[in-house]
Amino acid sequence: MMAGAYGISSGLIYPPGIFAKTDELVEVAKVAAEYGGVYDTHIRGEGNTLLESLEEAISIGEKAGIPVQISHHKAASRSVWGKSTETLKMLDEARDNGVDVTVDQYPYRAGATSLATCLPPWAHDGGMSDLLKRLEDPELRGKMKKDIEDGIPGWENFAGELGWDNVMVSSVNSEDRKAYEGKNLEEIREMRGDPDAHTTLFDVILEEKGAVGMIIFAMKEEDVRRIMKHPLQMVGTDSSASAAEGYMSSGKPHPRGYGTYPKILGRYVREDGVLRLEDAVRKMTSFPAQRFGILDRGLLMPGLWADIVVFDPEKVLDKATYQDPHQYPDGIEYVVVNGQVAVDHGRYTGILAGKTLRKGV
Description:
The chain is of the alpha/beta class. Among the domains are: 1-107 and 219-235, TIM Barrel, CATH 3.20.20; 112-217, no CATH class. 35% of the residues lie in helices and 15% in strands. The chain has twelve helices and twelve strands. The protein has helices at 22-34, 50-64, 84-96, 128-135, 138-150, 158-162, 185-192, 197-207, 221-229, 256-271, 277-284, 286-291, and strands spanning 7-11, 38-42, 68-70, 101-105, 110-114, 167-171, 213-217, 233-235, 308-311, 332-337, 340-344, 347-348.
């Protein structure tokens, strides 16, 4: 925190965070709170354990006395479609009870993570090298298959809950498996001639040494819109960096890295009227900046850093798709980063004006 962190984050569906206990998280959050930090969390479950996972995050904020940020809030399983009405009510009640909680969101029905998260929690114990060894053991494979089919209480079982046709491979490293990118597990099973999709899952992870990206189609549009309209929601991509050319253009990553902001401005503001333009802009700029204490950005004011996007509200629109994600949006005329023009008339100028932000530095 003294080196400039804005808070502490947790990813509770991923190892090693998946093994963290609530009281452990409370104690570490207390330390971040002493320095004015935020507790930012990918909650333990967004599917059938959504409500209890959200309650855990709220309780950590209450016990640690720290603001809570729920990362990319969603209802991500058929079993919880429509439950955003309950989660948003929980957030409002928490605020009424003195817990400073907000959420961020990307405007898509699919999420993205590692394909290895389709394996049960115990398979991850000891890290990737131990996981790969377990995938070589026929007996342990059988146990993994049973756990995927039957589920484990408290586990975010993507494949078991949503089906193989909703699990898409987005990236692999090996050239001889590039054809898998953009295909779901059932399609890949047919390509390989595997007896079942469980075998495909295990073998692809093993062959790629765990380096397989996944897109999972899990959300309902009504929940996406309901969360988007809530005053505690702000916008975030949850994306790593990509580019339409060069070494960062590989794979078929989630289109959110290219399309989050123009999709909201074009589809949800202009076309569908889900948000007013001024509310959408605030959710993208000043709201997140102020939430995390980035006080010299997020507003157009004298003395603040000039981070500016100039767009045409009648033309702005996302173009990136799941099958063709490396596409820049329409309608973005200029981008100014730290006072330097990075995009001029829709074209990147080649400057590298960004920098790492540190609190108080």
